[in-house]
Design brief:
Layout lengths: L13 E2 L1 H8 L3 H10 L4 E3 L5 E4 H22 L9 H16 L3 H12 L1
Antiparallel strand pairs: 1-3, 2-3
Helix pairs in contact: 1-2, 3-4
InterPro entries: DNA-bd_dom_put_sf (IPR009061), HTH_17 (IPR041657)
Organism: Actinomadura rubteroloni
Pfam families: HTH_17 (PF12728)
């Protein structure tokens, strides 16, 4: 019979702002803005640097994938280009929240005005 070694507690996986930015294909400053507005919940290290829980980031990426797939199925349209859907959706939601106070109709009006 072999001795069981005590399991070391697993530390949560943390990502740097640059790594999170790469996942969502945004600038690292956007990740910092998301942290300030409460979209992301960072861990602040004693050094003052921010880190982001891997579980939270992966959950957001999965939510983006799920909503993109649900919308595509509901509208009977082909899937968007790989990688563009969930990331673009996350950015769009943050822009609507940050710049239009959560009013999607105001964002649409602004886009229509720019296109005309």
């Amino acid at each position: 019979m072999s001795k069981k070694q005590p399991e070391e507690p697993q530390q949560p996986s943390l990502y740097t702002p640059a790594e999170v930015a790469n996942f969502f294909r945004v600038d690292p400053k956007t990740v910092t803005r998301w942290a300030r507005t409460g979209t992301l919940n960072p861990v602040t290290l004693p050094s003052g640097h921010r880190r982001y829980h891997a579980a939270e980031i992966h959950r957001l990426l999965q939510l983006g994938d799920a909503s993109a797939n649900a919308n595509a199925a509901a509208e009977h349209r082909p899937e968007p280009e790989p990688g563009a859907g969930p990331r673009a959706r996350a950015v769009l939601h943050s822009v609507i929240r940050d710049y239009f106070g959560g009013d999607a109709a105001a964002a649409i009006r602004a886009i229509r005005t720019e296109l005309n």
